[in-house]
Design goal:
2 copies of one chain form a homodimer. The first copy, chain A, has 15 helices and 23 strands. Chain A is an alpha+beta fold. In chain A, strands 3, 14, 15, 16, 17, 18, 19, 21, 22 and 23 form a 10-stranded antiparallel sheet that branches. A 7-stranded antiparallel sheet of chain A has the order 2-6-7-8-13-10-11, with no helix packed on it. A 5-stranded mixed sheet of chain A has the order 1-4-5-9-12. The longest helix of chain A has 23 residues. At the A-B interface, helix 12, strand 14, strand 15 and strand 20 of A face helix 12, strand 14, strand 15 and strand 20 of B.
């Protein structure tokens, strides 16, 4: 095991980041522990079967055979996309983080088998992408759609995870050879002075630099980040695509340093910004940092769903215009939520500000987690906040039915790697001691302070922190994040209430801690109604039910008589109530309120009428029951609403 | 000239339709006359240049050369789509309707030149599509994307128009040869027992039958209509498209007779239904008629914008789910509005019901007309009801900037043919005499009654009908449509008020008319506020300004200080006022109201907040000015809103 907890983002000692991931972070119980157990026992365990069934592993075997036996290219690359290899790399990365956390011989053996397969498929010159090796064409000729640097990035991230989890250099050597090859091909005066259509290699190269200490990996990352936005990518015609996605899609429309708003393909945009944040941390580049703060602010202020999800448009999986946040047609790809967590976390490390972890929390519990079925083996690709009971699904929609795997299977292994590495995002250390960003039962420590957290979060706002070890004498500071959603909280040290207000989301407790000391944070979390700003047209006159970090929704399955959530309005004057349901949806707290039915089921005819002649409500009340949004669509395909029209508003 | 007014839909004497297009319909002054003047003098006149510049005519020349000179295929089919020929056919059809209305030697000469070119390009076996003739591949091998029957349909429609306008059989002969060829290829037991990816040939074949009296054209139309919905089309992979649009896109998901809702690609759906309505009229097929009534009801009740526009989704240019009607991301293609007019008009003829012409009126004045720039030479492809000032346009969006021509140029010549044939949609005759469906200054007649209409519609609701000829003695009935938007009206016969109520939208005046008799209908048209039904989530808490048949919008250009329409709410308590602006946007009546500004420009930070803590309004009032929606985006690209948030609703 390493001295530092194995996680995906590890700034070097020279980095300017005021915060570093904690040296110790173990989630041992509660909400996330259960989701991580399912991730390990079901999702990760079944990964190799899925990758076998989809042909991803066969592609590597074929490429290896071609390399060792020579001869003609075997026919039949499996899969519809150039980036099939990345599914394997992402599963592998996830499995490595899982192994770092909880050794498992069977999983370890599978990991080594896949590592061997990857190594065997790599060409002598370091190049590796089975699509092109198996007859898909010449390497490096389709920079737009080819995803070669994207796949290289995922290979590098898997190799770094493998190295950090196992200490082995075996996959790292493969990654280094590929990185060297890339370095020989890309750059000013070299064969190609352009970038990849899908960012990803940037963050990977910084992490490779952090692992190997080879400066040229960092330089190459900087080159790729700075080269973007200069229109070097072709128009996208390289795969005969008949629609032009435009430069925003490729993240080639404007240099990151000059950009004022997030735009284009959401995952591409956020992977790029994650890489740029890594670069800014390692180089201290203040201009780049300022751009990243500006872009994050733009995203959060104008382009983020209440669920934390981003990327509202189906068209090209892209960010919409400011305040374009439709609930029904939300694309809100699971991978975009993951990318948002990646970016926000790096910003938290880079700036030390709590608001970035506020968004991480919101996204994890809602926009991200909705993508993962409770069973660990079914997934949502898009995550709308409204599903009509009478919707009929169309190709590519994949809204209400969880699916075991996708033709474009980017999301499932991406969920796996985030859940497997989740402890990494919970705690940091810095000059001022230990900080808890996320609350989960477990052990966290670094810089001479180790604490044990006990909590029933997100169902209960009480977080008890007990000091396990305090190796240095004198005062130390324990910093706790008070989530932005929380307006009332109390803090007690060894049972005595401590007066003190959070500053910009951080609540600091400075004390000469000794083992056994307890800090108890109580976050009041009544169910509450939330409305959107006036520029969010899509949900005007509606409220969302929230409680703690959780966004709630009405699912048809929970309503009396199978009432369609589209057929009711919420009475905001009746207080919401909460009850615990251990047997429901893996165990949830439900929130109940009162709704009102329409007087008539007036659905026929022209749906527009004079102001003042609106459809009347009967005044008949009905009990409405909300469940956490993350758990929706686990019981078939009824109607679902996050945003509920408010009675009295027409 | 024909004894019957030359128009696009002409049921045979044996058709079951209770209404027939009037034998005489001439629009001679007022609103539509001006738009038709611009259509003739600018749009139609410049058509050949556009078609030359885009290469459409060159394709025909090349195909003709190949046919006469033989040899190898000349390189370079011009244009990106298989259906480039259809642009030529649609312009030609439009030019023929224009010639039927107003002879013009120059236009007539251009028409004949294009007809000659088309005839020269046709293969010996009757086949004609320059894309495939010029090396695009084997004919009839790409039924999904090939658009061969679609182009054949537009050729047939152009030929029918040419024949009706000029009496010539020259283009009709080309169309008949192609129809014969199609008949030899398609059908049970023949080479192909499938359909075209894009409906259009169905309505064309019925009209060809109406022109030639050859029953097999009608039989072929019936075959194509009945063959749909049985999944005979390939998956769409025939052009290497990498996304599968699914069977709804092709209108191959369910047989028309069994369908319960409009779905898939809006233009394809509505062209198909127009053809089915023609078929039902000629065959008296009651099952088909019942399906069409059901589908029209579904469209109007759940999938139509207040502008009459349809097809809300950008994805595959499709209908959305019921009540999925976003204002900002409305696709609302101009061609879909045209297709809606085609379908509704045929339903008006088939059923005799006024509500179909209500929708025709609404669509013509709003969703359709918005697609045509005031200058006659710029166009909108999509017609959103909300445009953000800070929107940045992306490839394929084409929202706020009118464009001289499109890469996919379906809309401009489609607008031209509807404007050129517009009088056709205004009046009918039936067993009960003459009916006026639309109000425009002009002469209308048939069945022994000819009337002259004088009106300043849509700016004024007074319609004066003077009898010009009444060739039969005894009582006759003149039937006037009272639009559904109108709640107060009076009728006078020779100056005396007539008591009488409209029944289902029809107001009947039975009288022994003699020349000089006047019927005066006064439709009250105060500016009004309209709200949407509670299931239209996208515009909850908002109202639209309407006046008469016109939908209004706020454009940034008209607001004080260039106020962004997104930054204001409307006070519904202050009455709206109307003023005439002859110099504005070709002459419009403006509507003014009072809005309220936000107290602070609070745009930063998380945009969701607790209910009760909404952004306050200052109470500061501002004068808001609305212009007709059809005229928007003719003064650059500022913000625009049809739906205005109402003050007092949060």
């Amino acid at each position: 095991m390493n001295t530092v907890f194995a996680g995906p983002v590890r700034p070097t000692p020279g980095a300017v980041s005021p915060l570093r991931p904690a040296a110790l972070a173990r989630v041992e119980g509660g909400f996330w522990a259960e989701r991580r157990r399912i991730n390990a026992e079901v999702s990760l365990a079944e990964g190799p079967e899925r990758l076998e069934a989809a042909g991803n592993l066969a592609n590597f075997r074929a490429a290896a055979l071609l390399r060792t036996e020579g001869g003609t290219v075997p026919p039949g690359f499996a899969g519809d996309f150039q980036f099939q290899d990345s599914d394997v790399y992402k599963w592998l990365e996830a499995a490595c983080w899982q192994l770092a956390d909880s050794p498992d011989d069977e999983l370890a053996a599978e990991v080594e088998a896949v590592v061997a397969l990857i190594a065997a498929a790599q060409r002598e010159d370091g190049y590796l992408q089975t699509y092109y090796q198996l007859g898909g064409g010449e390497p490096w000729t389709e920079l737009g759609w080819g995803h070669e640097l994207y796949c290289a990035g995922h290979l590098i991230q898997a190799a770094v995870a493998h190295h950090r989890a196992t200490g082995s250099d075996r996959l790292l050597a493969v990654a280094r050879r590929f990185a060297d090859h890339i370095d020989s091909v890309f750059g000013p005066g070299k064969q190609l002075d352009t970038v990849c259509g899908h960012p990803e290699v940037e963050t990977a190269l910084v992490e490779l630099y952090r692992t190997t200490s080879e400066r040229r990996h960092l330089d190459l990352a900087r080159h790729f980040i700075d080269r973007r936005g200069h229109g070097t990518l072709s128009s996208g015609a390289d795969r005969g695509h008949d629609r032009d996605p435009g430069p925003e899609f490729w993240q080639d429309h404007t240099p990151v340093r000059e950009a004022t708003e997030v735009a284009g393909h959401a995952v591409r945009q956020l992977y790029l910004l994650a890489g740029a944040a890594d670069l800014a941390a390692e180089t201290g580049d203040r201009q780049l940092r300022a751009a990243l703060v500006r872009l994050w602010d733009d995203m959060v202020t104008t382009k983020t769903y209440v669920s934390g999800a981003v990327g509202s448009r189906h068209d090209w999986e892209s960010f919409g215009d400011a305040h374009e946040l439709p609930a029904d047609r939300a694309y809100a790809e699971t991978c975009a939520a993951i990318a948002s967590v990646h970016f926000s976390w790096r910003m938290a490390l880079l700036t030390g500000e709590a608001r970035y972890s506020d968004l991480v929390e919101r996204t994890l519990f809602n926009g991200f987690l909705a993508g993962a079925g409770l069973d660990g083996r079914t997934w949502l690709y898009v995550n709308p906040l409204h599903h009509r009971a009478r919707s009929h699904e169309r190709p590519g929609d994949q809204t209400a039915h969880r699916t075991p795997w996708f033709r474009c299977a980017c999301c499932p292994p991406n969920v796996m790697r985030l859940l497997a590495s989740l402890p990494h995002y919970t705690a940091t250390t810095g000059d001022d001691g230990l900080h808890l960003h996320q609350y989960a039962t477990g052990v966290y420590g670094g810089d001479g302070l180790t604490v044990r957290v006990t909590t029933d979060y997100p169902w209960d706002g009480t977080v008890t922190v007990t000091v396990d070890e305090a190796t240095l004498t004198g005062p130390k500071t324990l910093t706790l994040r008070v989530p932005a959603w929380c307006t009332r909280y109390t803090l007690a040290l060894n049972g005595a209430v401590v007066e003190g207000r959070a500053e910009s989301g951080w609540l600091r407790v400075t004390h000469a801690f000794v083992p056994g000391d307890t800090v108890r944070l109580e976050l009041a979390m009544p169910a509450r109604l939330t409305v959107a700003g006036p520029r969010v047209d899509a949900v005007r006159g509606c409220a969302a039910i929230e409680r703690g970090p959780l966004v709630y929704c009405l699912e048809q399955a929970d309503q009396p008589g199978g009432l369609d959530p589209d057929d009711v309005v919420l009475d905001p004057g009746v207080p919401l109530t909460v009850d615990r349901q251990p047997g429901l949806l893996g165990g949830v707290d439900r929130v109940s309120g009162v709704g009102r039915l329409p007087a008539t089921d007036e659905r026929a005819g022209w749906p527009y009428r004079p102001l003042g002649a609106e459809e009347p409500r009967s005044g008949e009340d009905v009990r409405l029951t909300a469940v956490p949004y993350y758990a929706w669509a686990n019981r078939g395909a009824g109607g679902m609403r996050v945003w509920l029209p408010l009675a009295g508003l027409g």
